[in-house]
Amino acid sequence: MVEVIFLGMGAAIPMRNNTNAAYLVRIGNERILVDCGPAVLQQLDAVGVSPAEITHVFFSHRHGDHALGYPMLMLWHEIKANARQQAPTLIASAQTFDALDALMRVSYGPLDGVTESAPRITVPQERIGQTQIHPNIMLTTVPMAHSDFAPSLGLRIETRHQFGNHIIAFTGDTGPNDHIALLARDAELLVHEATYSATLNPEYAAGVYGHSTAQIAGRNAKAAGAKRLALVHIDAMYEGQERVLIEEAQREFDGPVFVPVAGLSLTLHDE
Ligand SMILES: [Zn+2]
Ligand SMILES: [Zn+2]
C-alpha cells in the first residue's frame, strides 16, 4: 500500500491555516518526507505522525519554505528520541547539503552527534539521478528550473512488487521546463506546484520567478500522461479561490484535478 499525506499546500509565505508545502509518503515501513519547511514538527503532529517514524527526508532545494525545518527535526531527535529511534536518511544535492549544514551551524551546532548520525544520500544537481532506497522503491531526482541561488530537484517515486506498481511525481518549485514530462511520465499522481494563476494574473501565464501556473501544471500533466493532478505551493493571495486554479488546470488536463487540504491522505490502490 502506498499513501500520500499532504502536510501543507502554501507557497513561501504560507496561508493562515495552510503552511508550507510538504508531503509524507508511506510505503510499507518506509516513510519519506518530501520537503521540510519551518513548521514541519507541527505539520507531522497534526496528522499524528511522530518524527521518529520518518525514515527518509528529501530536500528539493535550499529555500527556507522547504528546508528550515531541518534543524527542528534534528533538534527533535536530540531531545525526544529514545535510543532505538534513529535519525532519518537525508537525500539532497551537494549544494543543498551545504545550505543544510550552514543552517545547523547557526541554529543548534552539532547536537550531540545527532546530525552526524543521519545517513546521507547525495544526488546530482545537474543531471538525473537514481537512488534505490529499498529493493522495490526507486527514487529518481530530476533537475528543475527554479533559482540560481537555490537549484531545485523534482522527485519521482516508483514502487513495485509487494507495494504494487505505483508512480508518484513531485515537481517541487519550478517554472516550465522540458524535464517535467520525464519526471511525471505515466504518474498515477502528479503533485505539481501552481504558485500562480494564469486566469487571475494573465501577466504570469508563461510562469514567473521560477514558478508555474495552474495552467502550466495542467499542460504538463497532460503531456506526461499523468492520471491525477494535485495543485500545491499556492500563493497566499489566492486563498479561497482554489476553484479558479482547479478549473484553469482542468481546461488543459482531462483527469481529476484537486487542491489538497492540509492533512488529506490519499491511498493508491493496486489495480
Ligand atoms: Zn517554495
Ligand atoms: Zn523555492
Task: Provide a compact summary of the structure.
By secondary structure, this protein is α/β, with parallel strands linked by helices. Helices cover 24% and strands 26% of the residues. It has a single domain, classed as 4-Layer Sandwich (Metallo-beta-lactamase, Chain A).
Fraction in beta strands: 25-35%
CATH class: Alpha Beta
Q: How far from one another are the termini?
A: 11 Å
Mean pLDDT: 96
CATH topology: Metallo-beta-lactamase, Chain A
The dominant shape is globular
Helix and strand content put the structural class at alpha/beta
CATH superfamily placement: Ribonuclease Z/Hydroxyacylglutathione hydrolase-like
Q: Radius of gyration, rounded?
A: 17 Å
Number of domains as seen in the coordinates:
1
Order of H and E elements = EEEHEHHEHHEEEEEHEHEHEE
- DSSP helical segment count: 8
What features would you describe in this structure?
The protein is an alpha/beta fold. The chain has a single domain (2-268), classed as 4-Layer Sandwich (Metallo-beta-lactamase, Chain A), CATH 3.60.15. It is 24% helix and 26% strand. It is built from eight helices and 14 strands. It has helices at 40-46, 64-67, 69-79, 94-107, 114-117, 180-183, 214-224, 242-250, and strands spanning 2-8, 22-27, 30-34, 56-58, 89-93, 120-123, 129-134, 137-143, 153-159, 166-170, 189-193, 229-232, 257-258, 265-268. The strands form two sheets. A seven-stranded mixed β-sheet has the order 6-5-4-3-2-1-14. The protein has a seven-stranded mixed β-sheet with strand order 7-8-9-10-11-12-13. Helix 7 (214-224) runs parallel beside helix 8 (242-250). The protein starts with a strand and ends with a strand. The mean pLDDT is 96. It binds zinc ion (2 copies). One zinc ion binds next to loops.
